[in-house]
Amino acid sequence: MRPSDRGLPSGTIVLSRAEVRRLDTIAIEEFGIPGIVLMENAGRGLAELVARGTGAMAQRAPGRGASREPSGRSSQAAATSRSEELGFALRLVRSREADLSDVPIDAPPSAGARRALLLCGSGNNGGDGYVAARHLRNAGIAVEIVAAAASRPGSDAATNAGICERMGIPIRSVDEWTATEGRARAGPSGGHEDRLVIVDALLGTGADRAPTGLIAEAIKQIAAMRAAGAIVVAADVPSGFDADRGEPLGAVSVRADITATFAAVKPGLLSEGASGDVGMVVLVEIGAPTGIAERIVRDRERSASRIAPDVP
Question: What predicted TM-score, i.e. pTM, was given to this entire model?
Fold first, then answer.
């Protein structure tokens, strides 16, 4: 699919999954920024978006169907219609700008989400989710976590998972979640002010194959809950969505209302027809020096110029 430049602010940098990995490596190894600091910045930005950026959506959004339309004009038209129903056009905004209400992270819960369910994988994407859960709890929002798998002991994600546990945030396994409460907790228990926000932090940009097993089951449950009225916010990219090619990796993938993408925009988020999968795209900065991304882009352009054929 061809990337689109619709709505991109001037100077927006687009990086592939390999380039984002390089950005992280340079930030950590050359600049000495601990990975857990980058994770903290990403997770806090995600929490801020959930806390302040979903209130208007909750007031406007009706229940949405969970099924994926066939590709083609009808699918794209349906995606556009859903965006209009939610009051958002497909566009890119920065989390600090006024497209989202100016509600700080410590604002009362009535400003945005009041209940948040965070589904966390075992890697760094899950770690971003654990960070977000901490900040959402501190903001007075009712928070629950579903852990798809345990994080590697000693990892940044495991550190944040441990903090969440010591804070008393409920953490359940995917099996327990799907078997017990799942569908019963799908819709809002009251008006728009009590609408559930689901944070998808299962798989990040590194995913390059179709989800299977518990991850696939969790994604199916997210779809059922979204159909019943929950708002879905994806961390970095929707789980099961190819960050480079801009299409689902298989038959099962998350469809998000908002995608909070970290550090730089991924090309797949801008692909034609991707709006039905990614919703509104919000760029969350993680504190890496801006010169790193610019350096990566320059290197890419130099490499492309070396291999480009000579034109007579």
Answer: 0.80
